[in-house]
Design a protein that fits this description.
The protein is built from eleven helices and eight strands. It is an alpha/beta fold. The chain has an eight-stranded mixed sheet with strand order 3-4-2-5-1-6-7-8, with helices on both faces. Strand 3 and strand 4 form a beta hairpin. The two termini are 21 Å apart. The chain binds adenosine-5'-triphosphate and magnesium ion.
C-alpha cells in the first residue's frame, strides 16, 4: 500500500492540487505512486496532462470490471493515475450506492493496487462527508485534511474532531493530520488564523503551503509545481510535506512496479 486519503470538510481548499503535487513529490523521491480520483469532478487528471476531452475512467465500468487497474494511466516516471472518468448521473448514483452498501466493493475493485507491495496511493476525495470517504477510510493509513487559513475553515474543525468523526474513521495508528494551504503572510486574517491553528493543532499540523501563484499556473499548464517552478515557495513546502508523510508512514524508497493489464486502453 500505503494509502493516503486527502479529504476536507471545506471545498476549494486545494485537495486536488495537493494530491497531484504530493504524488509528484513522492514519485520524484523514487517511490511508485498512484494518484486515485474519487471525486465526480474528475479534475485530478488535468494535473497529469490528460486532455480535457479524454473521458476515460474506472467508475463508468466499475460494476462490470472486477479489477479497476485496467483503467490506470501511466502519468510519468514512477507515477500512475486512476481517473474517475466522465459518467452519467445514473452511473454516479450506482457507484455511490455500491460504495455505501457493498463493504467489499472498493477493496475488490482496487484489490491489485492495494495489494501491490510498497505502492503509495494518494486519493482525492470530494468535499465533506461522502460514500467514497466512508468506504476508503477503513483502508487508509493516513488522512490529510487540507484547510485554508481563514475563519470559514477554522469553523469546520469541531466537525473533523468530533467523536465519532463526521469525516471518516481515521486509522488508529496514524490518524489524521492537517495541512494549511494558501497561507498568506501579507494578510492579517491569514496570519491570525494560522496562529490559532498552530496553537490548536499542535503536532497534528503536518505542514503549511504558502499561497503561490505558481501553484495555480502549474495546474493550468497541467504540470507539477516542480516542473513548472522548482524554486517556488509552494514547491519547497510540498517537498517538506512529502518528506514528513514518508517519515510518518515509514516508507522506504524504491518500491517496485505497478501491475498493469496489457492491451487495455493502451497504457
Ligand atoms: N498553495 C496555493 N496557492 C495558490 N493557489 C492555490 C494553492 N493551492 C490551490 N490553489 C488554487 O486553488 C483552487 C482550488 O484548488 P483545488 O481545485 O485543488 O481545490 P479542491 O479542494 O480540490 O476543490 P474542490 O472542493 O472543488 O474539489 C485552484 O484554482 C488551485 O489552483
Ligand atoms: Mg478537488
Amino acid at each position: 500500500m500505503p494509502l493516503i486519503c486527502v479529504s476536507s470538510p471545506k471545498g476549494g481548499v486545494g485537495k486536488t492540487t495537493l494530491v497531484a503535487n504530493l504524488a509528484y513529490a513522492l514519485a520524484r523521491a523514487g517511490n511508485k505512486v498512484l494518484a486515485l480520483d474519487l471525486d465526480v469532478q474528475n479534475s485530478l487528471r488535468l494535473h497529469f496532462g490528460v486532455p480535457f476531452s479524454d473521458e476515460r475512467g474506472y467508475v463508468a465500468t466499475s460494476q462490470e470490471a472486477h479489477d479497476w487497474s485496467s483503467s490506470i494511466f501511466n502519468a510519468g516516471s514512477n507515477l500512475f493515475l486512476l481517473p474517475y472518468g466522465v459518467v452519467t448521473d445514473e452511473q454516479r448514483l450506482t457507484f455511490e450506492s455500491s460504495l455505501a452498501h457493498d463493504k467489499n466493493f472498493l477493496s475488490r475493485g482496487l484489490g491489485s493496487v492495494l495489494n501491490y507491495p510498497g505502492l503509495i496511493i494518494v486519493a482525492d476525495l470530494p468535499q465533506g462527508p461522502s460514500a467514497a470517504l466512508s468506504a476508503l477510510s477503513p483502508l487508509s493509513d493516513l488522512h490529510l485534511i487540507p484547510l485554508m487559513a481563514d475563519p470559514a475553515s477554522m469553523a469546520t474543525v469541531p466537525q473533523v474532531e468530533e467523536h465519532p468523526p463526521m469525516y471518516g474513521h481515521y486509522n488508529p495508528r496514524h490518524g489524521f493530520r492537517y495541512v494549511v494551504n494558501q497561507a498568506n503572510s501579507r494578510r492579517q486574517i491569514s496570519r491570525d488564523v494560522l496562529n490559532l491553528m498552530e496553537e490548536r493543532f499542535g503536532e497534528r499540523l503536518l505542514g503549511v503551503v504558502h499561497q503561490d501563484e505558481c501553484v495555480a499556473e502549474a495546474g493550468a499548464a497541467q504540470q507539477s509545481i516542480f516542473n513548472f517552478h522548482q524554486a517556488s515557495a509552494a514547491a519547497f513546502d510540498i517537498e517538506i510535506l512529502a518528506k514528513k508523510v514518508v517519515d510518518i508512514l515509514g516508507i522506504s524508497v524504491g518500491n517496485g512496479t505497478i501491475p498493469q493489464k496489457p492491451g487495455k486502453q493502451g497504457f
